[in-house]
Amino acid sequence: MMYRWGWNQSYGGDRSSRIIRAPEHQAAMSHAAGVMKSLAGLLGMGSKEESFWARVRDNHANLTKSLFNAKEGWFCDYNSKVGVWQSGCNDDGPAVDPAGAGKQSYQLAPLLFDAKALGVSLLDDADPVKILETVGNPNKFGSDPLGSLTFASYCATTPIDPRCVTDIWAPHPWVMIAAAGNCNQTVLASKATHGLVDRVWGKMDARARLHFDNPESKFLRSTSPGSPYPGAAFECLSKGLGETGPMAESCGSEDYAWTAEATTVSVIREIVGFREHPDFNRGVFILRPSLSADLMLRGLKLQSAAAAAIADGSGGAAAPSYVVRGLQFRGNRFDLRFTVKSESELAVHLKVVAKDGTEDSGAASAAIDFVAQNGQSTFHISVNSGRIQVDMV
After folding, report:
1. In this structure, are 146 and 79 located in the same domain?
2. Tell me: the pLDDT tens digits for 357-376?
């Protein structure tokens, strides 16, 4: 049988971890050790402690890189029980033997955890761009919302195939999107986030709940066969192979937090572009705005409408903008405003505000305006003595 995380969990994590050498395990360990080494340095714990964590970091980095199969161009599983490459390398094999569970979303973890600033180097021979091309390949990327990298043909030809993933759990699309963003594939990360959020939030914020004549729940414990209740997060994202379409049916538990959390984090990191710098000593956060094509087009239309209203005297002069409030980094709270200037440019207004969200009239109050090329400009931002410092990188 195939012992793999994600698509077949019948044997539990313990047996899987003893049989399968999985790239996500090694990548996560290397990154965690890199963080520990950095913290040991910041806390002044001495060279012995730092050296220990450096060895752990480098050992697991080497193990991660050993799981990259150059022939397949993918981080694959290795089955230590029978001594063969499997998921990611033998995608056309039977579903119930050591070959052929398809490419798995968690196998993108080395892209997510690669962090040169922490000394975590996982991609020596791997080309992130070529790996991520698979994500956009309709012959291999068969889920909507995204989250599964198993071949679409599994579901098209044999719907009962165990590799046909009909429901996606939120950590899967989050890993895929975050991996793309971490490798500077901002357009892919932004586009995928927009599509995912449009699908998920469109159901969570629906004003009516749809019901279907389907009394049998495949989960046996689902709240009902209908769509989720308006305003509630839910456990998994229905791929929707039937006529009802994606996200049309409830999936697992109502009010399950990770669907809302993973989508919100993706918006903040991949569209707004606000993320921490991996080097703790830098004291800066990264801002790399990458609004999707739909958001840019909508912004331009709003600008044109506002300009027309000003011209005929029927409206005010306020420029329509996208606003994000309450972003926090190292004791400071920020509001961001993006105004679309052209098909590729954004005017950015960044302001430090009081922790309760009101204007701060004290020394910590600061604001700055600058221009960003959408999806291309990256800035390092810090606040020192009440002054915002913005550096393009």
Report:
1. no
2. 555 444 456 899 999 999 99
pTM to 2 decimal places: 0.84
Q: Which of 256, 272, 288 is the last residue of a domain?
A: 272
Q: What is the largest CA-CA distance in the chain?
A: 77
Phi/psi at 200 (5° precision) = -75, -50
356 and 372 inside one domain: yes
Burial 333-349 (b: 16+ CB within 10 A, else e): bbbbbbbbbeeebbbbe
Number of domains making up the chain: 3
Domain limit, last residue, from 122, 150, 183:
122
- Containing structural domain, residue 133: 127-272
Residues 328 and 204 in one domain: no
For 52-105, write each residue's pLDDT tens digit: 999 999 999 999 999 999 988 899 888 887 788 887 786 655 544 555 567 778
DSSP codes, 326-381: EEEETTEEEEEEEEE-SSSEEEEEEEEE-TTSS---STT-EEEEEEEETTT--EEE
**Whether 87 and 6 share a structural domain:** yes
Q: Which parts of 43-68 fold into alpha helices (H)?
A: 47-66
Using DSSP's 3-state secondary structure scheme, residue 29 falls into helix
